[in-house]
Amino acid sequence: LSLKFGDVGNLKGLVIRFLLTTSYYQMSVQNWFSLHSLQLLYNHSTQATFNATRIYAPASYSYHCEHVSSLQRYDALLIPSSANDLSKLWEVTFTDFQIQGFNIQEGHFAYAKDCASFFSPAILMGLVMSLILLLVLAYALHMLIHLKSLDRHYECKASPAYFAEVKDNDIGDEKEPLRSNANESYELRNQQFCKIYI
């Protein structure tokens, strides 16, 4: 794919040439195209060549990226092919770059595969916050499971006891006074379930 600009300043016959390849991948069961390299031609000869990295999409899609550049601040998707040619002297940057080499219909781009990473800073921050919240929830559940019972003032836990009705004349025999400093309390003699301190 060639973009011909003609004469630009001192550059005679400036051409930007994109070399695209297509391959079939069995894992995705479809053809994918990729940008193999980019060449800058002027004065009727190749002057600079850049190898392209990570610029690919399914053959029925187009590829879109906000910046495709040889500069590190734009993630350097274009890498000089050799230190011996003039590629090091060039800085190439495409803004709002979109390309499609195959299966073009009615002169319009197909659905675009964007170069945005699945793990952008916002997504990573969301994952970290989710992990922190999960740790807090796990700690809270751990504390609830190991929560001590407040029944430690009793010698044992007794289910509700059923006491048969007693006659009025037997009440005196069933209760025995307990000696204490100033209070008078009673305790059942026959304790079948549990001893409770008052």
Automatic annotation (TrEMBL):
- Residues crossing the lipid bilayer are 118-141
Cellular component GO terms held in the UniProt record:
bounding membrane of organelle; cytoplasmic vesicle membrane; endomembrane system; proton-transporting V-type ATPase complex
Task: Provide the V-type proton ATPase subunit S1/VOA1 transmembrane domain boundaries.
Answer: 117-154
Domain of life per record: Eukaryota
How does the protein associate with the membrane? Single-pass membrane protein
PANTHER family, per this entry? Answer: ATPASE, H+ TRANSPORTING, LYSOSOMAL ACCESSORY PROTEIN 1-LIKE, VACUOLAR ATP SYNTHASE SUBUNIT S1
Q: Which organism is it from?
A: Ceuthmochares aereus
Q: Which family does the similarity line name? A: Belongs to the vacuolar ATPase subunit S1 family.
**Higher taxonomy:** Eukaryota, Metazoa, Chordata, Craniata, Vertebrata
- List the keywords (alphabetical): Membrane, Transmembrane, Transmembrane helix
> Which Pfam families has this protein been placed in?
Ac45-VOA1_TM, VAS1_LD
Q: Where in the cell is it found?
A: Membrane
Residue intervals of the V-type proton ATPase subunit S1 luminal domain: 1-102
Q: What is this protein called?
A: VAS1L protein
Quote the InterPro entries the UniProt record gives. Answer: Ac45_acc_su, VAS1/VOA1_TM, VAS1_LD
Give the molecular function GO annotations.
Answer: ATPase activator activity
Which GO terms fall under biological process for this protein?
A: regulation of cellular pH
